[in-house]
Amino acid sequence: MVATEEKLKKHGIHNVKIYAADITDLPALEAAATEIQRTVGGIDYLIANAAFVSGVTSAGRPEVLRKDMIDSFSTNVVGFINTVNAFIAGVRTGQVKKVIAITSGMAKRE
Ligand SMILES: NC(=O)c1ccc[n+]([C@@H]2O[C@H](COP(=O)([O-])OP(=O)(O)OC[C@H]3O[C@@H](n4cnc5c(N)ncnc54)[C@H](OP(=O)(O)O)[C@@H]3O)[C@@H](O)[C@H]2O)c1
């Protein structure tokens, strides 16, 4: 969080407020959502960008594959659902009311 604040300052960005929450931790997300609505009001855009992206290859390593799949499901599926559930009430009171999910090419149906 401090590193992100420093980076914003370095780039002359002063109108961004930072809140921290692990998306696998629903109570932490709900606390962040409550604080955001208290300070800025309704949420126009909820952008779900956080994701677990494995940095290792699991080829021939079933234990690595198992851990990667559990971490991926926990963050990229349950974490996304947690994020929407925690923030949707705030989105409903925003002006634009948009939820944007950042996915990978593999999620594209065509
Ligand atoms: N890079 C690509 O080629 C690519 C391609 C297709 C889609 N995407 C998608 O684009 C989005 C961003 O990816 P990226 O390449 O920027 O990945 P990244 O550099 O690994 O960034 C992922 C971000 O998610 C955060 N995060 C991970 N787990 C979290 C959790 N449990 N709670 C809260 N935050 C968490 C990380 O925070 P920390 O830094 O604190 O860990 C990091 O800021 C993802 O949704 C990804 O699936 C990326």
Notes on the structure:
The longest helix is centred in the C-terminal third of the chain and has 31 residues, at about 60-90. α3 links the parallel β1 and β2. This protein has one domain: Rossmann fold (3-Layer(aba) Sandwich), CATH 3.40.50.720. The chain starts with a helix and ends in a 9-residue tail after the last strand. The protein has a two-stranded parallel sheet. It has helices at about 1-10, 25-40, 60-90; strands at about 45-50, 100. The protein is mainly alpha-helical and about 110 residues long. The model has no long low-confidence stretch (mean pLDDT about 95). It is globular, with a radius of gyration of 16 Å. NADP nicotinamide-adenine-dinucleotide phosphate (NAP) binds near residues 22, 23, 49, 75 and 79.
Q: State the CATH superfamily name.
A: NAD(P)-binding Rossmann-like Domain
Small-molecule binders here are: NADP nicotinamide-adenine-dinucleotide phosphate
Fold-level CATH name:
Rossmann fold
* Count of extended strands: 2
Our Rg estimate from Cα atoms comes to 16 Å
Strand % is 5-15%
Helix percentage? 40-55%
Shape: globular
Q: Ends: how far apart?
A: 38 Å
Average of per-residue pLDDT values: 94
Low-confidence stretches: none
Classification by helices and strands: mainly alpha
Report the CATH C-level class. Alpha Beta
Domain module count: 1
Q: Summarize the main sheet.
A: 2 strands, parallel
* Helix and strand element order: HHEHE
Strand order of the largest sheet: 1-2
- Judging by the overall fold, what is the CATH architecture? 3-Layer(aba) Sandwich
Number of helices: 3
InterPro entries: NAD(P)-bd_dom_sf, SDR_enzymes, SDR_fam
GO molecular function, one term: oxidoreductase activity, acting on the CH-OH group of donors, NAD or NADP as acceptor
